[in-house]
Amino acid sequence: MRNPSRLLAALLLAGTAVHALPAAAQTATSVPQLNYTERKLANGLRVYALRDTSSPNVSVQVWYDVGSKDDPRGRSGFAHLFEHLMFKATRNMVPEQMDRMTEDVGGFNNASTADDYTNYYETVPANHLQRLLWAEADRMGSLVVDDLNFKPERDVVKEELRTGLARPYGRLFSHYLPMVSYQRHPYARPGIGSIEELDAATIDDVRAFHATYYRPDNAVLVVSGNFDPADLNRWVDQYFAPIKRPAGAIPRVTMAEPARTAARSYTVTEPNTPLPALVMSFLLPPAKSPDMPALEMLQAVMASGDSSRFNQALIRTRLASDASVYIDDKQGTGLMAPYAILAGGKTVPEVEAVLRRELTRLATEPVTQAELTEARNELLTSALKERETVEGKGDLLATGVIIEGDPRAADKRLAALARVTPADVQRVAKKYLNLNSAVTIRYLPAASGVTASSGDKIALASSVVTTPLAAPAGITVVQPASEAERVRPPEPATAVAVNVPQPVTAKLANGLTVITVPRTNLPLVSASLVSLGGSTADPEGKAGLNRLTANLLTKGTATRSADQIAAAVEALGGQLAAAAGNEGMTLDLTVRTPNLAPALGIMADVAANAAFAPDEVERARGQAVDDSTLALQNPGALSRIAAARAVFGNGAYGSPAGGTPTTLAAIGRPDVVAAAGRSLRPDTSVLVLSGDISPAQAQNLAAQAFGSWRAATPLAATADRPAAGEAPLKGKVIVIDMPGSSQAAVAVAKETLTRADPRYYQAMIANAVLGGGYSARLNREIRIKRGLSYGANSGLSAGRKAGAVVAAVQTKNASAPEVLGLILDEMKRLGAEPIPAAEMGTRQAFITGGFGRQLETVEGLGDIVAGYVQSGVDPAEIGRYMTSVRAVTPAQAGEAARSLLAPAGTTTVIVGDAKLFADALAKRFGEVTVIPLPQLSLDKPGLR
């Protein structure tokens, strides 16, 4: 993808039966169909329109029927590389003008490359629709392909490849899995390609690829949102109809992957692998096969939710820290990949035996009707979520057209899911999950200090069929128009007002605050129980306590076991998730409206009666240790964690929220019980209900579910830890040496302000100018101008007692000093020079536009209000937010930049292969503290 911004019953409830509607009835009544119109232009362009006047936005998507499978021989990664080039110049648009026309007006854009397609999608305020249609047509018909744009963007793609390889298991899933899964079909090639084949690409190759595939008869245009149909048709005819249809035929991959006749296995040892992993590969039929709905249900039974079979057999037993099933449905032969990341201390043979046992059981025993109902209800809730936004609806329709050749595919899928039986699931398990033809990869950690791969060689099979690209005759080389000849985009129309739902607050007799945020476009409700006491309330030496406590809330009450809680909620189509951030804990679930009452009953039981059984505490502790181990091997994540510790030292905001193996070992069950008692009490908690519910209904259901909840002890004052403490590395440059890392992660951090500070909005805008979005200064200097990274950004966090700004970039190791210099230079320039009003206006639009899109979903609404609660902000701020953002002046933002975001006093953490950059770093920036990864201690403010 271009931006960091795409790896997926009724049971007794403590004596009360949950009665759900029959699945077929729920499908028909609760999930609205995609209502669209379609037409086809004379040049072959297929046009689909889905009108939704309840949204202030419109989504424009152009999907091309070309993907990584179409990469020419010797040019793997080509379709993805070309995706990047589509954001450069056209005859009438200068490079990055698409970003100016989307992000800078409050919208966003992105693109992705899959094996079968490349899609470009934008969501903008509805009054910008005509401009976006003009722009998409211009880059379809007159893209400028030259070295000036090609070579820097190729460097960006190489950094994207390195970023993926730097992550633990990136090589396993992105490279090894496709290579071993296909022996003939070009699906075997990794979509990102390789450094060698990217370097081999020439400008003539790129032009030939564009002329071959980027044509109107190979594209689908989908417009979804608030528009006038007559206007849309007129604009489509005006901008797209004149694009000529080339005479030549479009090359198509016709190779079929043969059935496997034997099992194969590979054992590899890889550096940067915190825990062993196991993945198996099975071939599936094309996405349009009538077997796919049953396979989707099989996947949900195996891996969706805490009551799924994999969770019960592998995670609950502490054999694995993560286990799931990945399905990649395609135009051609698809792929199913069950996988497990092992728990600490477990071996691959014992995990593999259980995984194989569970796969065999699916083929030899029918799933239960309860499992099937639970899976179906979860999929129905998921289908509603997909249809909440104009982008989501457009994506569903376009996927059906490109992958299955049917715009009704998403609706037909729901109807088919309602008809799946246990016998169907068993039948497809027997047919497709044949262990005698499985391909297995056992992925083992290299010994400490080893930086090279070893074991069985995994490479692209020589039998994979690829085709050289034959350049069409008469390729037109487009040149940018002169300033005098350049056609400007049409002006925006009158803006469509954004409707901001207003929270309604009430209080129950027990002190529980209930906030309702109504949105009635779909039968869906999100519930969040919000409490204070997040990771900043962890006692010194017991980092991770509150997150551990949150994770244990759903693991059993006085009357329900963990398994009963999971099965009961998932039978209602929801999943009960618990989490703890810096400022508090949350219990969250989203269900269809008819299932809200019983779901709230379960949530209330969990909040009031969590048991914290000793065996559950030990299980959760082991999972937390595994999570901590994973973070230590991820350069990007580790740089941020270490930066927080260096800035805030042994203060409350410096401790790792997830804990470390040492601090987690120090936590006992009494600590967990005490933490829950402090945080989870009705007189300090808030229930947020957003979606298809009125304030009166919300108060009634809250009273029924939570009315009997009482605090165990009187509310007492607690002694808070200071936000910041001893910090010997604050203001220093620190290198964490990770030999063999494919990239260096650079994090520059500085303490800033609390959420209550009156300068909050000014600082938010200043940070957005610095690093908020693709068009911001950091990304412009580091990615767009120099190709040094896949993306550069900065983020401002503001809590109750402290806040920080963190600028973060991943780059090749040798570029780390240059990137650090660019970050510091931009921080300095931000406060030293006046911020142009026009530039700041684009960042204000970027912020308000993102806020407006978040309002489109019930979970987004709930998250906004829950965040206000935890930060100590009046929930009515939701109605003032956009006005507050727009009221900031350039002078105010500049002052915030000088006082809060200046480079003086910043702390830098770079995680990477130190031998490739440490000397140059010290030469440029002076004293550098180098910490070998084995010596790193996140428990200490000095990091060792």
Describe the protein in words.
The chain is of the alpha+beta class and 944 residues long. 40% of the residues lie in helices and 17% in strands. The chain contains 32 helices and 26 strands. The strands form 5 sheets. A 6-stranded mixed sheet has the order 3-4-8-5-7-6, with helices on both faces. It has a 6-stranded mixed sheet with strand order 11-12-10-13-9-14, sandwiched between helices. Strand 11 and strand 12 (334-342) form a beta hairpin. The longest helix has 20 residues, at 147-166. It is globular and about 80 Å long. 56% of the residues are buried.
Count up the helices. 32
Low-confidence stretches: 2-29
Strand order in the largest sheet: 3-4-8-5-7-6
- Strand elements, count: 26
How much is the average pLDDT?
94
The rounded distance between the terminal residues' Cα atoms is: 37 Å
Percentage beta strand = 15-25%
The shape, in one word, is globular
Rg, please? 27 Å
Helix content: 40-55%
Q: From the helix content, strand content and strand pairing, which structural class follows?
A: alpha+beta
Specify the biggest β-sheet. Answer: 6 strands, mixed
Descriptive labels:
single chain; 944 residues; alpha+beta; 32 helices; 40% helix; disordered N terminus
Detail the topology: elements first, then pairings:
Blueprint: E1 12-13, E2 16-17, H1 23-30, E3 37-40, E4 46-51, E5 57-64, H2 78-85, H3 97-102, E6 108-113, E7 118-125, H4 129-141, H5 147-166, H6 170-181, H7 195-200, H8 203-213, E8 219-225, H9 229-239, E9 264-270, E10 277-284, H10 292-303, H11 309-315, E11 320-328, E12 334-342, H12 348-364, H13 369-386, H14 390-404, H15 409-419, H16 422-432, E13 439-445, E14 454-455, E15 504-507, E16 513-518, E17 524-532, H17 545-553, H18 562-571, E18 577-580, E19 584-592, H19 596-609, H20 614-631, H21 635-648, H22 661-665, H23 669-679, E20 686-691, H24 695-706, E21 733-737, E22 744-751, H25 760-771, H26 777-784, E23 792-798, E24 803-811, H27 816-832, H28 837-854, H29 858-871, H30 877-887, H31 890-900, E25 907-912, H32 918-925, E26 929-932
Parallel strand pairs: 4-8, 9-13, 16-20, 21-25, 21-26
Antiparallel strand pairs: 1-2, 3-4, 5-7, 5-8, 6-7, 9-14, 10-12, 10-13, 11-12, 15-16, 17-19, 17-20, 18-19, 22-24, 22-25, 23-24
